[in-house]
Amino acid sequence: MRILVTAIGSMSAPYVIKSLRSYGHFVLGTDIYPGKWHFETRLCDAFRQAPLATQQDEYIKFLTQCCDDYNLDTILPLTDLEIDIINTHREAFKNNILLAMPDANVLNIARDKYKLYEQFKNDDSVPSIKTIRLIDFLNDSTLFTTFPCVAKTYNGRSSEGLIKNAFFKDIKAVENPNSYIIQEQIEGSIVTVDYVRSSKYNIDVSIAREELLRTKNGAGMTVRVFKDDKLVQLSSHIGNVLNINSAINMEFISASNGNYYLIDVNPRFSAGIAYSKIAGYDMVRNHFNALSGQIIEPQIHINELYITKHWEESIL
To answer: For residue 160, what pLDDT band results from cuts at 50, 70 and 90?
Structure first.
């Protein structure tokens, strides 16, 4: 395959690129910053500097031009914003270009935290956190009475706009209430599940990790990889309800009452996807197996592992 990988400066990119090239794929890396600023550029076969995805027309034209110039057959976006933009411009891409991301029906729910809540709030198999639109609360304060709470944008990414321990005065001060939801604040550790499913064969695999050290934008730096049959079944149920056919990641709060509360379904590779590879499973390879209609590799035995991410300095 000849693959365009976006946002090569993102945290998942080094492992993604290495995995693709280890299987013989050609990789064109793109990013909004110059290639010489990124170590990851040297991992790619070629590089092109991209315009901002928010400049939608220019960005889509850039992607289609890259496909023509490099005879590409696949686009693999690594960030939520790029997925959102590409999803709304699917018609711009030729039929022979694979958009290596979930389909529009999945994205419609996964990229809207309120719709995700609505999808599962009456599902006894999925512990859900009470969620309402902020604008609804401002019109009727009896809808939500549990403070402090969490406020966040309904389609946010990387914890942007997140307000924890919020009281009435905090959420009333939000500048764009139409773009916010508020949720009951539940204490517990964050658990991320790298998940892949083949809808054709109805097979799925999940690799879970507890995030022990986590950056402000939500990336786990030190993690504990573990297996919990309850969490495996929960992830599988969510994947089946949404009819996932790719690799994604789910985030939960592991509460003291033993429940895993769903907080996010991210329709992309997690920042820590390399942790799953270290645990023994290649999510990137099986992402493409699922998308191409091939059978994915089965669930592996998980040994408890403690893994940390670190950086080294390199001369560019």
So the answer is: confident
Largest Cα span, the chain: 58
Residues in the chain: 316
Q: What are phi and psi of 288, to 5 degrees?
A: -75, -30
Positions of E strands within 36-175: 46-49, 74-76, 98-99, 131-133, 149-153, 163-166
pTM of the model: 0.94
Residues 127 and 273 sit within 8 Å (Cβ to Cβ): no
Query: What's the Cα-to-Cα distance from 286 to each of 16, 86, 143, 144, rounded to whole Å?
Result: 12, 22, 43, 42
The DSSP line for 205-255 is: EEEEEEEEEE-TTS-EEEEEEE--HHHHHHHHHHHHHHT--SEEEEEEEE-
In this prediction, residue 95 carries a pLDDT of 85
Cis, peptide link before residue 148, omega less than 30° from 0? yes
Q: State how far the Cα of 273 lies from the Cα of 15, in Å rounded to an integer.
A: 8
pLDDT tens track for 57-94: 999 999 999 999 999 999 999 999 999 999 999 999 98
